[in-house]
Amino acid sequence: MNKIVQWIDERISLEAARKFAKKKEVPVFYGTVWYYLGGVALFLFIIQIITGILLTFYYQPGVNTAYESVKFIVSKVEYGWLIRETHSWSANLFIFFIFLHMFTVFFAKAYRKPREMTWMTGMLLLLVALGFGFSGYLLPWNELSFFATRVGTEIAGALPVVGDFLLKFLRAGDEVSGATLTRFYGIHVAVLPLIAITLLVIHLLLVQFQGMSVPPKLEKNPALRRGAIPFFPNFVLRDLTVWLIVFNVVALLALLFPWELGLKADPLAPAPAGIRPEWYFMFMFQTLKQIPAHFLFMEGELFGILVFLVGGIIWFLVPFLDKHAGDPDAVSSKRWTRIGIIVLAFIIVMTIWGYLV
Amino acid sequence: MGTDSGTSLPSASRRKFIDYLLGGGILAWLGTILYPLYRYLTPPKVANVSVNQVEAGLVKDFPLNTAKIVRFGRKPVIVIRKKTGEFTALTATCTHLDCTVQYKSDAEIIWCACHNGKYDLNGNNISGPPPKPLTRMVAKVQKDKVIVMRGEEA
Question: Which of A227, A333, B105, B113 gives a 20 to 30 Å CA spacing to A152?
């Protein structure tokens, strides 16, 4: 092994790579546990790539084959159920950990200068993750996913100016059909992975270049800090330990709580009672449900969509809006923390409410 | 960038001209690539199935206070037999977000499961988020069959 390293070292100096790996330190303090969350999301993404590739070996997009091939995977292919359940569970946990990662970063104000780009690539990655969820949900072509896609694309279609084009582009026509399914498949297995990997590389390089952020409170009061450990290899080994735990949790969930395949999509069947989107869209779904049909000269749903759109853009630009984020005593900084708490509370309350009714 | 110090160098206007030519050429080249891509991604028009009437089934297959969804061209239509025995037909696509509605026989209303939208049997949106009524169709009984036709306004 040493010989191989030496052989490579003689040809391309590995010194730069070594220095790059050793450069970063992880601060030890009450919030060190937050530093694991992004890594967990990364690990779940790796699981998604592996299980996703495995699923493509049997999955066949198409109105007459999609549902049947997923059924074939879970009932006939040896351990096919395990691969599919792992893919579904890992997908849900992936999005959950991205949200968790995002909120800890938000409340630790880690987006402040000089990490604006890390925040923005992270937000784009969240958007891509939601795109993965939305496009992947349709692929089994069951009743729930069929109506979720009709509603979801109709929402995109309600956007001003671009809506009409977007609706036709996503559905590959006026209706959700077999053409939509093949298009979503292409987006899910080729377009989004390329975008995600590109963004992820930028996101990780930025973290490695800039090192770990600490909350402003800690910056002001170094006494709260209990030293630091090298990222490589010390923290990486801890990361791997956490990944092992996460892996076992995913496996356990996949074993004990399988996701149902449900009934095959039927364009002539009414939307079934109790229909609801994936949990991470629930707060938006529940909000749209509460808005009256007409609100302020426009259709209620358009109003809701615009609110979410504007809110998302503000959230994306928060590193530039929270101008005194580095000062824990600044009034404006505290105000942004309060806004974050309200957003988080809104999401949690709406999600729970959505599941209660 | 260069300074025109002598007549041997191209003049600024000549350089500018070449820049425009090059820039324009690149834009046109990009256009020839992007336009086919844009057109490729726009799905081709599927021939519109023009249907004026469909058979919804036999009268005896509709017990009182039940409904059935039938295909009308490419759209679903809900055919309801009221308690009184009359037939009524409406487009079955919820005007809110495109889900397919269903008949609730207990409340005698049309209901959309997606966002709890409700319509009366004339298709009027009575509660929930739907912004518009369902489009009315004409349902007629001819001999023992139920026939659905386009309404006057549709």
Answer: B105
